[in-house]
Every structure is written in structure tokens, then in C-alpha cells.
Amino acid sequence: MATSTATIRNDDDQQTSATPLELSTLNGNAMQQNTIKLPPRQYERRERLIIIKNVIIIGLAFMIHFTAFHGTSNLQSSVNADKALGTTTLAVIYGSLILSNIFLPMTVIRWFGVHLTMSLAFFAYMPYIAAQFYPRFETLIPAGLMVGFGGGPLWCAKCTYLSTVAEALTFVRGRQSRKDVNTVKFFGLFFIFYQMAQVWGNLISSSVLTLTLAGNETDSQSNSSSQLVGELCGARYCPGIGSEVNPNLIPPEPAKIQLLNSIFLVCMVIAFLLMFFGVNSLKRYGIKRGETEEGLSGLKLLTATINLLRTRRQLLILPITMFIGLEEAFLAVDFTKSFVACGWGISNIGFAMICFGVANAVAAGFAGGLAAKLGRTTLAALCAIVNLSLLAYMLHYTAQPNDYIKYCTFAAVWGICDGVWLVVVNAFYGILFPKNLIAGYSNFRLWESTGSVIGYIISSQLCTSTKQMLLMFVLLIGCAGYGYIEFHIRKKQKHLENMLKE
Keywords for this entry (predicted)? Predict the structure, then answer.
């Protein structure tokens, strides 16, 4: 059989050729060590469908799994508010995720492979849901640690899988596609499903909670005057305000919380089965267990992570990465309690977060196409403007009781911004560090988690307005760093184009 070639591009838009039995990507002028080796039979038309099928099933599994996790986590600051149990547990989750991202991903992936790592990591989340049946520090804290330790391998394996099959699709389609474009599109497709978890999780929680609380909620809200809500809620909310001051903050009935936890536990079992039986191993593309990152593990992955921190690109992208963690923590804890629960009622948190989930999924779905059409820089700039405008408006907004239109609008616009940031920054890591995918994505999760931990820690210490101003400051710093990287890449590309013309 004749040997064909496929044209690929590196970060500087240079072209090279690769044979069907060995496709390599370029980073600058250096050849990437990890190669995708595909047997000839893979070059059938149906291979594109198989690759997309795997991405869709991974997205579905994550959607079902995080339907349970997000649906539970969004209620923590309000349901488990006693002694800040809920926010402390969330801080423990993301704190252990920092350690997990440094020490565990490559070791676990070497042992089990990328596919099986994603499947088994789902199990680590299940005790967190089970502990909600008996919420105490001695049950939730250990369960939170397990979530964090499972999260590092899970997310690194997911990112590695998507980047690998994006490269495989580039080879299958040849001149018709580029790896960076395919990577953005695959992350966009994944986040469509992933962010829909917010919709289903909050739809389930709101349906269960409002089933019995509708009558009581109306009474409590009627006692919450406009003046009371305006003085205590929104950006003016400060730690220490409880149900004795604002009846909207009365926790739901324990029986309904247990029903909710039972539903969410079943969701996690279904997600595991879907991931385990529905996704193809990367062996299909010649990637064997332990070969994804040249045997990095434990301290070696820590060394690789630290080495990336010595690069200018990694340092400059850290602020925007931390902002993603900060804004997600603010949404999950501060927005749900300061705005929605305080002004509208705890049982209505899910309705506002449904708006967030729908907008987030739509934004993630369109982000890939918009990035390809408008360019990553333009899309990120537009997102930053909208994000800053939203934060500034919320900072000066006077909360009103039952102002569900505003609360849902805030959540929806927030969802649009978050969806764009997740797709653009996740894909950007894969483009910036093609030779160190696992170490690069470990850095992403590390600093995103660091931002989340900071957000959860300051949640019980600072007023909402102070945290909003902190978010605006970090966003501005992050945009400056991101913009400089894009400017440097574009300048380098123009330089190479001029050299080729000469």
C-alpha cells in the first residue's frame, strides 16, 4: 500500500509532513517526543465519527457525574452553613486537589491508562455525596479529601484524552484541519455537556426542595421587607447574617436533602458505567499505558510542573487561570448566598443556577467556532469587557426581594463569561505546551484550584463587595498577561511568515 502524508502545523503556523504510521507535532522548531501511531485501518472515513463519539460520551459521563457534584456543592454554603461546614468542605476539596494535581495524575495514569483513570476517578467522588446523609466535620472533611485526590487524575486524564484525539483527527483529515482548531472545538463540545450539569443538577435540587417548601417560602419572603433585603443582601452581604435575621436563609427540610442525595448518588453510578463501557482506550491511537508523558510520576511531575513555572508563558497565564478558580468559587458560594438565597430564598438557588448552566453550555458550544472565526484574542477581549461590566453593575446593585429576573440574568451572563474562559484557556494550555500536556494541564488545575481555595477561605471572612473588587483586579491582571502571550505569538508568526516570503 502506498504511503501518504498529512500536513500539520505548529504553534508558529509552519507546515511539515508526517507519514500515516508516525504523526508528530511541532513546538517551535523542536519535534514533540510523543507520537501518535495509527494502524492503516484507522484511515477509514468512519474514524472521524469514532473520535467524535468518544468525545461526546466523555462529555455525557462528565455531565451526569457533575450533575450530582455541582447540584450538591451549590447548596453547601446555605444548607451546611453551621460553623461554615459547607464552605470549609469546599476549601478542603480544592486544597487537596492542589496536592493531587502535583503528585497523583501521572502515577495514576501510568498504572491504569488515561481511559481507566477517568472511570475509576469517578468513584472518589461518591463518598462526598454519601456524607451528605450525615453532614458533620468528621464525615464531610475526609470525603472532601477523596474528591480532591480523585479530581487531579480525572481532569488531567480528560484533558490529555481530548488533546490526543484532536491530534489524531488532524492527521485523519490532513490539510482540512489544524490541531489548535480541533483542540478548541473538542474542548468546546466537551464543555457543552459539562456545563449542562449545572442545569440538570439545579433543576433536580430545585424541584425537590420547592416541592415541600413552597408554602413556607412564601411566608418567609413576605416577612423579608424590601428595606431589609436591600440592606443585608447582594454586594452588601457580610458573614454572620443568618436565618434569625433573614427568614429567606432557613435551611430546607432534612428529608428532602436525603432524597436529593439518593438521586445524585445514582447519577454517579450511571456516569461510571457510561465512561467505562462507552469510551475507547487511547491504545487505538498507539498510546499505551505509561507512554503519555514519558513516564512522569510523583516528584517527576512536580519537577515538570515547577519547570513550566520557569517559562514566561506559564507565569503570564497564571493570573487568568487563578481568576477562573476565584470566579467559580464566588459563584458557588457568594453569589448563591449573598444574592439568591438572601434575596429570593434557598430553595430558589437552583433556578438561578439553571440559567447559569444553560448560558454556560451555549457559550462553551459557540466559543470554539467563534475562536476560529474571530480569533482567540478578540473573543477573550470581548469576554473580559462583559465580565468586568457585570461585576461593576453587581457591585452597585441594590438587592430586592424576589427580584428573580435580575438574579437569573446575573447568573446567565456569568455563565457566558465562564464558558468562554474555560474553553479558551483550557485549549490555550494545550496549544502552548504540546510537549508537556499532562504537566501543563496539571498546572492549570493547580492554579485554578489555588484560586478556588482562596475564594472559599475568604468567603467567610470578607463582605461580598470586597470580594467583587478583588475579582475585578485579578481579571485585569490576568487579561494583561494573556494579551501579552497572544501578542508575542502573533509577532513570532509574522516574523516566520516574512522569512518564508524572503
Answer: Membrane, Transmembrane, Transmembrane helix
**Cβ atoms 56, 163 nearer than 8 A:** no
Rounded Cα gap, residues 26 and 147, in angstroms = 36
Distance (Å, rounded) from C-alpha 280 to C-alpha 119?
A: 12
Q: Which triple of cell numbers denotes residue 157?
A: 486524564
pTM recorded for the entire structure? 0.71
Cα–Cα distance list, 499 to 9, 14, 17, 502 (Å): 16, 11, 20, 5
- Cβ contact 286:36 at 8 Å: yes
What whole-number distance in Å separates Cα of residue 169 and Cα of residue 172?
5
Q: Which three cell numbers stand for residue 488?
A: 508575542
| Structure confidence by residue, pLDDT tens digits, 288-329 | 655 554 445 556 767 777 788 888 888 999 999 999 999 999
Q: Which residues face 31 on adjacent strands?
A: 26
For the chain, count helices (H), then strands (E): 17, 4
The dihedral through the CA atoms of 133, 139, 143, 144 has a sign that is positive
Task: Report the SS3 class of residue 280.
Answer: coil
